[in-house]
Please model this.
Amino acid sequence: ADGLAGLKVANAVNTGNTSSGISLEIINRIDGTFNISGPGTNTGNTIGAVGDYGDDATTDFAFAHPSATNGQWKIGGLNPAKQYSIKFWGTRSVADTRVIEIKRNDETTWLSYDGGNNSNFNQAAVFSFTGQTEMIFDIRVPAGSSFGYISVVDINIGEPACVPVNPTISIVA
Model:
């Protein structure tokens, strides 16, 4: 509904229509000083369906502005025994470049995608991890881009991959 600070989703429902316990909280707005009286969201895209998401998922978007120097979103309610893949994808029906950069708050590497007329669901920022109960993401727009967009936050939950362990055996007389 909006990109203002606060809890936006509590106990999200998964594709099986059961509660997941996952939440989305906006810690700091990503639209910076651009229209601070506005909601930080907009609508009107004409991209259409992408991935598993229909037209209604790509019509609306949260927008990021270069003036946002401390934009942060938090995904909470995670099970540390599970593996998560979180994909940020966005689009806006425009002809120019609209890059957004996102990184895990506990890392230094920024991932980015161009949301200008983005109809490719694989053109996104994807993060995979285990062992966390929450994850904070820093979000910004790099110099040279006027805005960035998030239309979908896609969360996949799985079992962590098993890592084979070859124990060292020593026999001491």
Q: What stands out?
A: The CA atoms of residues 89 and 96 lie 17 Å apart. The first helix runs from residue 55 to 59. The first strand starts at residue 6 and ends at 9.
